[in-house]
Every structure is written in C-alpha cells, then in structure tokens.
Specification:
Strand content: 25-35%
Number of strands: 21
Bound molecules: arginine, zinc ion
Largest sheet: 11 strands, mixed
Strand order of the largest sheet: 1-4-7-6-5-8-3-2-11-14-13
Oligomer: single chain
C-alpha cells in the first residue's frame, strides 16, 4: 500500500515534468525535417520519428512491372509534428495516420504526410501507405533507376546506398533500423526471395501465390530486398541449427555449378567468420545468385550475387566478403555514408582472413601484395578513405587501401589486440551504427597505443603510405 502510493506520486511527478517540458520545448508543432542529417545525402531519412517495424504487402506482375499494395509502418514520434516525410518515389494512392486520412504531397522522392491534427511527441503511430506504380519507369533526382529488370520478367530491388524508395516508403537511413515482414504475390511458378526466414506461401484467390518473408532483427532499409523470377530454391539447415535458403537463377548457364559450389558453403564461411568476429548477428542464412545484377550486395541474412562472380569457377572470396558484411555493415552500420570504410575495408580484410583459412596465403601477405601492386602514382592513393565523397563510396581505394589500413593496424598493435578490437567493436555496436572516429578511439583504448598518426596517414591523407609496418617490431 505504502509502496503503491509512493509509485503513484513518483509517476505523477514524472508526468508533470513531461507535460511542462513538452509544452515549453515545442509550443508550436513543427514539420519533421526532410533529411536525417547525412552530409552525403541531405534528403536521406527524415526527422521527427523512429520506425520499429515495416509490413510490406505487395502484388507484382512480372509481365507489366506493375507493383501495387501497401506498407504499414509502426513508428514513434520524437518531436511534436505538424507533418513528417517519407522517402518514396512510386505514386501514392492514399496515406492514413492512426486510421485518419492524411494529406500526402509527393515531390523529388519525398512524401510530406500531414495528418488532420498534429502528433504529440513520444506517441506510437501507425502509418498505412497505399500505392501502385511501375518501379522501372521511376527515376530519382539524378535520373537514376535502382530497380532492375532481367530476362523473363525478373525484377530485383537491390542497391546501395538507395533502393527502398523504388518499392516501399521508409525512413531511408541506416540509423533508423526496424524489423520487416515482406510479402509479395506473384503468378504461379514465379519465385520471390527476400531477407530472413521464410514464412511459407499463401494461395491467392486469382490462382497467384503470395511469398511471405520475415526479418526479425533490426535491419536498415537499404539492406531490405526482393528478387522475383525463375529460381531453384534450396532449403537446408546450418550446423548451428539456423535455416539456410539459397536460390539460383534458372538462367545461370555455364556458371550454375560454380555458383552452387560457392554459395552452398555459406554456413561454413559463417562458422569461420563467427570464430573470428563473434556470434553471427542474425537468425537465418543464405544467398541468391542472379543474372539480373552486376554486383554483389550484403542484403541482411541473404546476400545477392551477380552470376559474373562465378564465371572463372568457384569464388568463395566474394561469399566471405558479403557474409563479413553481416557483422560490418548490417549489424554495425554506417552512422553516415562518409563512414563507408567501416563496411568495405573490413569486409575486404575479412576475405583475406578467409583466404588464409583456405591455405591461400596469410592475410598479411595478401595485404602486402595489394600494397605492392598499386604504384605510388595510382589514383587509388588520391582517395581519402575516411571521406571518399558521395557517389564514391565504392571506389576500390575504400576496399583495398581500406583493408591495408587494417593490416597496418594489426602490425602496429599485434594479433591479440587486433582481434580484441574487432570483436569488441561488433559486440558494442551490435544492431547499431558506428563512426570511424569511434573505431579509432576503441583501437587506442584496447591497444593502449597512440594510433592517431597511423590512421591519419592511412585514412585521412592522400598519397601512398611508406609501408604497412612490421609485425616483427612488436615487443
Ligand atoms: N556493398 C557492396 C559490396 O559488397 C557494393 C555495392 C555496390 N553498389 C553498386 N550499386 N554497385 O561491396
Ligand atoms: Zn562490400
């Protein structure tokens, strides 16, 4: 009784404080910012709310490229809002906020949603967006279309740093992760792949079939994908008990076997990477190989690979790169896109470690090989890895010079501190985001060594560094 009344008093006091602060801090409801504050992409993401879940429920006709349906967003406001933005490029039919019809004004990849009354701060909101469009006909402000179509009506929503606006409305930035249910109805005989675990198919009244996928760990919008087309889907169980789903395009031709000989080893590669970086952060495993894409991307739980990676035979290097991104990029994401070295430098170095485990030279030897193979006047040395510039995130400098940087760090601090730094980073930042400066601070703290000069030379300064350092110099 006594305890109960004390709790009531405390709750009342806290309530008063909230009300007072709320009324003074934001007396006038304001529009949410059209961007989340990324210097490379000022309109990526939005201000004023935080998404916890997306339910994407669509119908896709491969013959016409017509995509229709709805996305239901569960979010919480972080300020008093007169309106807020969604990042989206397809034509919107309607928007409701907490069941009330809202005004939706779309322009330049931003949808300004104005509910009939302002939203209080700290409030749970449910936003339902109905839409229909042909993603392949939609261009962003730069004239680019990220949605891809392949032969036989194949369609792929895969790209980095931007793909979501072509198929679902979102707060499109890695600093706002959420769980996802993705469901797409397609004609009989068409396969739909996405992230996470497979929740089965449901027959549709028109004879079509709905594919249901669920990703239950925090996931960035750009890592959420769908691949639609003709695939062989293989289901199995990994040694750690997790479900494995791989899919291979029916049209891989001469690369069909080399693709399988690479991607079927996904659980083995994850087991190796887990032994180095700590527990695998996600609940499912797999890979998708397609002719409809010219690159590989580390889509959460189930990367997508261009068939081109397998044209010279098996290639587990690319598999180890994309799977290492599950730790570096997907679980620990970039806080802003300037920090892309934390993704690409680390995944590239991880592929050297995988190669070492396969008896193909030590990681140190591979890093040295790359260092030697780029002459001092090569353009790679003119890119500032810690700030490559927007549109330049995937320059080979970020990958190769980025991986050399980690070898230089390893040489400077020794194997044991190096591995401890990587494992602490993935543990501390799990399901979150990081900045290069935070990684440098962690490296200095764990190693007990001043590392400013090393990182300044390798990441922040143009020109070929004098060398990778000498591990033998360690005491
Ligand atoms: N993160 C991808 C990788 O594994 C690179 C994606 C490149 N993006 C693109 N649109 N080409 O390296
Ligand atoms: Zn990569």
């Amino acid at each position: 009784m006594f305890l109960r009344s004390r709790l009531t008093l405390a709750a009342t006091a806290a309530g008063l404080v909230t009300v007072l602060l709320g009324s003074t801090a934001s007396a006038v409801p304001a529009p949410g910012a059209p961007g989340i504050g990324d210097p490379y992409y000022p309109t990526a993401g939005n201000g004023g709310y935080d998404v916890s879940h997306y339910n994407i429920r669509l119908t896709y006709n491969p013959a016409t490229d017509l995509l229709s349906g709805s996305t239901t967003i569960l979010a919480r406001t972080t300020q008093e809002l007169s309106s807020f933005n969604l990042d989206f490029l397809l034509p919107v039919k309607s928007v409701r906020v907490n069941n009330f019809v809202a005004k939706a004004d779309a322009a330049n990849g931003e949808v300004v949603v104005t509910p009939p009354a302002p939203l209080a701060s700290g409030r749970d909101i449910t936003v339902v967006v109905q839409y229909e469009g042909k993603p392949s006909t939609v261009k962003d402000a730069t004239g680019f279309t990220a949605w891809k179509r392949g032969p036989d009506g194949a369609a792929l929503a895969i790209d980095e740093p931007n793909i979501a606006p072509w198929w679902f409305p979102s707060n499109n930035h890695p600093t706002d992760k959420a769980t996802f249910d993705v469901s797409v109805a397609v004609p009989q005989g068409v396969e739909v792949l996405s992230n996470g675990t497979f929740a089965g198919t449901t027959p549709q009244i028109n004879g079509w079939v709905r594919w249901n996928w669920r990703s239950a760990r925090p996931q960035a919008p750009y890592l959420t994908y769908i691949v639609i087309g003709q695939f062989e889907v293989r289901q199995s169980t990994a040694p750690n008990g997790q479900p494995v789903i791989n899919a291979y395009g029916d049209d891989l031709g001469a690369n069909a076997e080399s693709a399988r000989a690479s991607v079927e080893r996904t659980p083995e590669v994850i087991e190796f990477l887990s032994s180095v970086f700590g527990d695998y952060p996600f609940e499912a495993q797999g890979g998708v190989v397609s002719t409809g894409v010219g690159f590989a991307l580390e889509n959460q739980t189930r990367p997508v690979y261009s068939t081109a990676f397998f044209r010279r035979g098996a290639n587990t290097s690319v598999v180890s790169h994309e799977l290492a991104h599950q730790w570096f990029g997907d679980s620990v994401s970039v806080n802003t896109w300037r920090n892309i070295w934390l993704n690409e430098g680390f995944a590239t170095y991880a592929s050297y470690m995988w190669a070492e485990s396969q008896g193909e030279g030590t990681a140190a030897e591979i890093a040295q090989y790359y260092y030697d193979s780029y002459p001092a006047d090569h353009p790679i040395w003119q890119v500032t890895v810690a700030d490559p510039g927007s549109g330049n995130e995937f320059d080979s400098a970020v990958y190769d010079r980025g991986a050399m940087t980690l070898q230089a760090l390893r040489n400077a601090v020794g194997d044991s501190a190096f591995l401890q730094i990587l494992r602490t980073w993935t543990a501390q930042k799990r399901y979150s985001t990081g900045k290069i400066e935070e990684f440098i601070a962690l490296s200095e703290r764990i190693s007990g060594k001043p590392l400013y000069d090393l990182f300044n030379t390798w990441l922040f300064t143009k020109g070929k560094p004098a060398g990778l350092g000498n591990p033998a110099a360690l005491s």
